[in-house]
Amino acid sequence: xxxxxxxxxxxxxxxxxxxxxxxxxxxxxxxxxxxxxxxxxxxxxxxxxxxxxxxxxxxxxxxxxxxxxxxxxxxxxxxxxxxxxxxxxxxxxxxxxxxxxxxxxxxxxxxxxxxxxxxxxxxxxxxxxxxxxxxxxxxxxxxxxxxxxxxxxxxxxxxxxxxxxxxxxxxxxxxxxxxxxxxxxxxxxxxxxxxxxxxxxxxxxxxxxxxxxxxxxxxxxxxxxxxxxxxxxxxxxxxxxxxxxxxxxxxxxxxxxxxxxxxxxxxxxxxxxxxxxxxxxxxxxxxxxxxxxxxxxxxxxxxxxxxxxxxxxxxxxxxxxxxxxxxxxxxxxxxxxxxxxxxxxxxxxxxxxxxxxxxxxxxxxxxxxxxxxxxxxxxxxxxxxxxxxxxxxxxxxxxxxxxxxxxxxxxxxxxxxxxxxx
Length: 422
Known about the structure:
Layout: H1 14-18, E1 32-39, H2 42-58, E2 60-67, H3 69-79, E3 89-93, H4 97-102, E4 129-130, E5 133-134, E6 137-140, E7 145-149, H5 150-155, H6 166-178, E8 182-186, H7 191-204, H8 221-234, E9 238-239, H9 242-250, E10 254-259, E11 272-275, E12 291-292, E13 296-299, H10 307-317, H11 320-326, H12 336-339, H13 342-347, H14 351-359, E14 361-362, H15 370-385, H16 391-421
Parallel strand pairs: 1-2, 1-3, 8-9, 8-10, 12-14
Antiparallel strand pairs: 3-13, 4-5, 6-13, 7-10, 7-11
Helix pairs in contact: 2-10, 7-8, 7-15, 15-16
């Protein structure tokens, strides 16, 4: 078994660490070039800040491709069919793991001597393994939170600590809707966003979209109860795109909405803040894990031409001291050593909320068909929300479509497996 190239531990943090990110600090005659496929935005920005020190240490160049979520998903998957890959390190959304595993997209990190340590929040690791072997590492701890305007919450007679259930959220948003303001904002621009914004509500009601065998559970009492509750909530506001949602809550035009830490970093004097959902729909109801993971993991493509160096880069990016340094640049590590660090919490108190949300988080279903699943469900949910369909009719039709689509896909997958064996 090959071992990972030993990576030096760079203990300098914050300014000292990131001052090394100047262009002229790159090696003049590199021994190799690594190509990174990353999710555009703060996720890629954080990694780019980390690269110069690694480049000097290993005499390599790192070229970064910043991609949209869809482009990242499909370009990495498509490139995996080639004998020699274009990419050496890639970001992976957890919902792609089943598809990538089925198509042998990722390298087995365990075989290259890399394993995750105990400082990483346990629940965030669950998506990273396949048949006991490690294929991914949780790099950026994105997880759903409840965005809220501080003044509007206070005007409704609440403090953040008193928001203990969905019942409280509806109460605050209804208060402001009656005053001709917007209560709850939600994303209604894509099928994926419609579904994902609803999932924390569904979990709070004790429901989920699939059972333990990934069989659809859309046409169930829990799901119906959750969607009726969600419709009551969104009637206090309206649909919006991400940037409009953030601006409305920050500018005191709307009270609340589901968001992600990667969207917004509140300061002590900010008008907007966020908290972790409790997973209760009423004060007396049973709590559930209700925060949806949008964690960006990192992995190494199976067909990378520089696997050893790529695994060394992954190990470097996952080092606890390197990750702690990324916080100053907008990083959200999945590590206790960062999220419970006293100095970090003094400057970024919201990381206590992020830690709590990550501890009680849930990954979206690990299934090859997830893209088809949310497209079907999102379309039917939109028809229900708009009043085009009754709740029962929409959920019955969604359940039928989902069962048919999954059965069709799994028959094809079974045939492909048989052909491979022969």
